Amino acid sequence: MSADSSADVREREQPFDVELTEDEQGHAARHALYVARRGASVRRHGRRLRVEADDQLVVEVPAGLVDRAVLLGSVHLSGPARTLLLEEGAEIVLLGRMGGYLGRFEPASGTSSRRRRQLVAVEDDAFATRLAAGIIAAKVSHQRTLLLRYHRRADDSLLAVTVERLDALGEQCRLVDSRPSLLGLEGSAARLYFEGIETLLPGELRFRGRTGRHAGDAFNATLNFTYALLLSEVTAAVASVGLDPATGVLHTDFRGRASMALDLMEEFRPIIADATVVDLFRRRLLTGSEATSIADRCRLTDEGRRRCIDGYERRLATIVTTASGERTTFRRAIHLQARQLARRIDTGEPIWEPLQWR
After folding, report:
1. Phi, psi of 322 (to 5 degrees)
2. Do domains 3-105 and 112-347 have the same CATH topology?
3. Are 314 and 213 in contact (CB under 8 A)?
4. Cα(179)–Cα(148) distance, integer angstroms
5. Residues 132, 263: contact at Cβ < 8 Å?
6. Where are the domains of the chain?
């Protein structure tokens, strides 16, 4: 939802780079607030938040309506505004100038007992490998499904072969007995998958495969930005169930890395982030002109980020079926899978139940 659809939000000529989106139930109770305008400031005014740019009010909203404030690049957050957000139970997510995930502030919570169990569990190689294998097998299955969804409209006979090979790799993931072997299978699946995605996109886009963090084209730049948004969502879900986002079963410990959040995020990359970006480019809501190159690195323009955020939030509101048969939104499904992850840590049972996405 844009900010002007809330009756209790005041604005003046709201620009496209400030977005106030509804929660997964479509209610006006809690929202994600995105602020991407360079040089903008978020300040406190009583129990309200004011976004200002160029000495002008952009939008004003009650802090109690915000459950997540996502700030990109040089956006300034005042100390009083930060305190107010945390008092209201909101998290604060910081993204870099190029859209990469930097970190987050979260309200205080007591989580020590579950985190102690987590530290023990991740040191058990058999447990960690089996749990990670279930998550990656789910990811490969979702990659296969994404390609199949567009298969009938894709003019490429090799795509069916790609799907068959992904099937085989998914089965191998379920049987793997070491994390290095699992990472190798995941890498093989990713190469096949992105080769398949290349056949689904408009030819003028010039996408030539996944390049990772240093995007050289518009499609990779959009993927990176969407992955950063998704990582912030998953990190919040992991922390909310009392787990340490930094201690994972597949991703290794590294300074500043949210390893457990990255683990859980794997299942959601194809069905939320990749699906969002593929859809945006196939429908030509993004064409590649919404990205600029700086020192051989590509990043989205303000308009590109706005369109990406809109598509991402629409995707989070899409209905999906859980392993138990419950129909819910993708946003809530992230939190349900985080709860499953916590249960696996608590019980020592590493069988992963993926989402049902067809």
Report:
1. -85, 175
2. no
3. no
4. 28
5. yes
6. 3-105, 112-347
Distance of alpha carbon 39 from alpha carbon 33, whole angstroms: 16
Query: Do 141 and 171 touch, CB atoms closer than 8 A?
Result: no
Q: What CATH number does the domain located at 112-347 have?
A: 1.20.120.920
Average pLDDT of the chain to the nearest whole number: 85
Q: Which of 29, 33, 108, 118 is nearest to 77 (CA)?
A: 33
Q: Give the integer Cα–Cα distance in Å for 202 and 313.
A: 23
CA distance 238 to 246: 10
* 302-353: pLDDT as tens digits: 899 999 999 999 999 999 888 778 888 999 999 999 999 999 999 999 999 9
Where are any strands of DSSP class E within 86-204?
A: 91-95, 101-105
Cα separation of 278 and 145, whole Å?
13
CATH for 3-105 (3.100.10.20, 1.10.510.10, 1.10.760.10, 3.40.190.10): 3.100.10.20
Whether 24 and 332 have beta carbons less than 8 Å apart is answered as yes
